[in-house]
Amino acid sequence: MVGAVPNMRADFRADRTPSGLRARALRAGLISALVPLSLTLVQCGKAPNPAALAANSQANVQVVAKTNPQQVASADTFEDRFPAPQFRERFPSASESFLQRQMSDFSPKRAVQAPQPEQAPYKVASLAPQVPYQRPEREDLTTLVSMKSSAFPYFGNNPASDAPFLNISKGDRRGHRSYSGRVYWQDETYSDSRVLVHVPEHFDVRKPGVIVVFFHGNGATLERDVRDRQLVPRQITDSGANAILLAPQMAVDAADSSAGKFWQAGGFKRFMEESANHLARLTGDPNSVRTFANMPIVIVGYSGGFLPTAWSLEVGGISDRVRGVVLLDAVYGEMDKFASWIESHRSGFFVSSYTRYTARRDRELMSMLRQKGISVSEDMDGPLRPGSVVFVETGDGITHRDYVTRAWTRDPLKDVLVKMSATPSLALTRVASTNPAASSR
Asked: What are phi and psi of 89, to 5 degrees?
């Protein structure tokens, strides 16, 4: 025990040395740091106290208010942290644009060797060389196009009576009472302005061609009857002729032959002018408007289609462009208009095929023409030539309903176009010989 006391004092004196004081300070610092850390670790498994969070948040605001009054004025709101995007950040200016991407941009890229360009089979010696025109490949195009100049809607007069065509009303509805006494309402029967347009795959606007305008008969629609039952587009294509089809919707599915806008002076001309623009767009050549606007026309009238046919020839304004007229069991009247056109247009042809229903009027028209010194043929065996006037009577086995597909022959429209194509003076090119797909149908 006597020796221990001096040792303790020695250690105490050692701690009072400079190096001892430093070690002692180090130990005190470690203890002061570890005590708060141990308290924090004890709290790690507990959920934060909402009241404490609110108090801490308020305390932080008060601290900031003391140190930076301007910052607390704006506050740390949601809008401050997530400002709404400005208009210029969402939409590009006039000098900017979004980068457009396709789904293929995100697919794995494959290394593909670029094909070597083929040597052109031609040479162009010019200061501004141009590749020769090549007609784009396409299939038959059959579509419905709405046209302002089509037959309906029509709000003018009926020239037969010089009275308003829509001659009956019921509340807000307006309609037309036909000669049979039946009432057809404008919104159901006389409001369809669509036109059936058919462009065969082999049609070439650079070659001589023809526009066939088809006026359907009573009780018909463009899709159900003209396209699907009477097969008018198919007959145009199968003829192999460089021809296209326009078939305006007349009275919709009604026993009515009213001509609508084709009653008006220049109505047929306006229809063909508007059609030229649509045809140029549909064929993909905007520069062909003028070609379509001057292309020869063949008008085909079936049954009740005789009325718009006759008035288009009489007052349509472009009767000189009409290269031919074909009536399919359709001479129910207006013989004077047909006779007048035949007499004054000896460069065109006229064909009327008929059953017993129209036989009396067809014979009357033949008599009128013979009195004018115009030669009339009564068969379709020969070619069609400029000035040809042909009347063909068909037997009892041929029905009026099926007349567009079976008259003096099957597919009479096809037969007319084939015969017309065989006559160069009628300026119609037949291209079936260079188009196996068309001739094999």
From this structure: -85, -20
